[in-house]
Every structure is written in C-alpha cells, then in structure tokens.
C-alpha cells in the first residue's frame, strides 16, 4: 500500500461490528487481497485485535458491478447476480444455506455491501428465486391465454357484425346487390322476402 502498488478503493464500517475494505492492485502479479490479509491472516489479525475483535472483510475491487457485488458479500458464496442499471438494484442469488451469512447478523453484511456499492442489494435464496421465476412464468402464460381468448372474442364479434349481401339471384343470373336484413339472408324486396319465407316453410 505504501508503495502505491495496492490501492484502497473504498471503506465502509459498522463500528464494533464489521468493516469492509475494497482493494485493487496496479500489478497483475500481486493479489491485493492476499497482500493486505497477509500470510495466514497475520496482517489483518493485528488490525482486528486493535479494534477489539471487529470483523474485517478485505475484498477485491472491480469496475464490473456484478463482480463487485459478489466480492463485497464475502464471506458468503454467491450463485448469480442480476443487475438493474436504471434503478441501481442488484438481485443476488445465493445457495439456500448461505442466506443468513450473506445478510449477516442484524443485516450488517448486506447493509455494508449496499453502502460500499451505493446500490440496493436484494438477496434471495436459490429456492426462493426459482419459485418466483416459476410464478412469473405461470402468470405470463395466464395473461397470454387471456389475450388469446380476448382476440377470439373480438374476431367473432367482427364476423357477427359483418354486413351480408342479399343471397337472392336475379333473372340476369347475377346476385342481388342489396344488403341483407338483420337475421336474414335476403334484402327487404317483397320477392326476396318470399325466398326467406319459403326457406322457413
């Protein structure tokens, strides 16, 4: 750190509970986290002792928000991260047995992660995420079915409202050009009305 090879990018703290420090390295051959933690945690342990046992998480900084969120939620394991850039929300999926670790005691781990990233972090278990996605798919399918039924009804109404021509055939052999009366296949001409009557008889 003193040589400027390892840089401290961000620090957030809940005094007496936990601190998180994001670090990066200017040298690809140097692991910034390992350099700060020390062999078998020797360096960070000295700081922990000075702070009366306060937990210190040293994580790797990243410009990739998805990757950074994963790192910041250490020591929990993260299965996946879905980013909403517009609303600045990170949906974090963790194994079922890692939920309490990701959130932390009294929510400290999740709160510090949110403060460090300046994003809202929504943590869900793999089971919960799968159930929500299944529900979304079912709701989408239901909406699609409703839309299909609605479209069919509209088409049916259009067909019912469609104006019909009189079906009577004139002496010239051509079909009558008049419009048929409602509930009839023929127009209002007396001769054509009789055709409708004959049909009924």
From TrEMBL:
SUPFAM superfamilies: Prokaryotic type KH domain (KH-domain type II) (SSF54814). One of its GO terms (cellular component) is cytosol. Residues 15-90, 92-156 form the K Homology domain. One of its GO terms (biological process) is DNA-templated transcription termination. GO terms for molecular function: RNA binding. Residues 120-161 form a coiled coil. SMART domains: KH. Pfam families: KH_NusA_1st (PF13184), KH_NusA_2nd (PF26594). Keywords: Coiled coil, Cytoplasm, RNA-binding, Transcription, Transcription antitermination, Transcription regulation, Transcription termination. InterPro entries: KH_dom, KH_dom-like_a/b, KH_NusA_2nd, KH_sf_prok-type, TF_NusA_bacterial, TF_NusA_KH_1st. This is K Homology domain-containing protein.
């Amino acid at each position: 750190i003193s040589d400027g090879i390892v840089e401290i990018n961000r620090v957030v703290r809940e005094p007496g509970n936990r601190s998180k420090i994001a670090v990066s390295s200017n040298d690809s051959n140097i692991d910034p986290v390992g350099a700060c933690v020390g062999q078998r945690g020797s360096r960070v342990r000295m700081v922990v002792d000075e702070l009366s046992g306060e937990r210190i998480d040293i994580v790797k900084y990243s410009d990739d928000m998805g990757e950074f969120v994963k790192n910041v939620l250490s020591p929990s394991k993260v299965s996946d991260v879905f980013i909403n850039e517009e609303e600045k929300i990170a949906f974090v999926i963790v194994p079922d047995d890692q939920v309490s670790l990701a959130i932390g005691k009294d929510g400290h781990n999740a709160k510090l992660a949110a403060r460090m990233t300046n994003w809202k972090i929504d943590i869900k278990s793999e089971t919960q995420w799968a159930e929500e996605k299944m529900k979304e798919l079912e709701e989408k399918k239901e909406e699609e079915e409703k839309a299909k039924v609605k479209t069919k009804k509209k088409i049916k109404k259009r067909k019912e409202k469609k104006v019909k021509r009189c079906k009577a055939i004139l002496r010239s052999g051509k079909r009558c050009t008049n419009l048929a009366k409602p509930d009839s296949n023929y127009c209002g001409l007396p001769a054509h009305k009789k055709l409708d009557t004959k049909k009924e008889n």
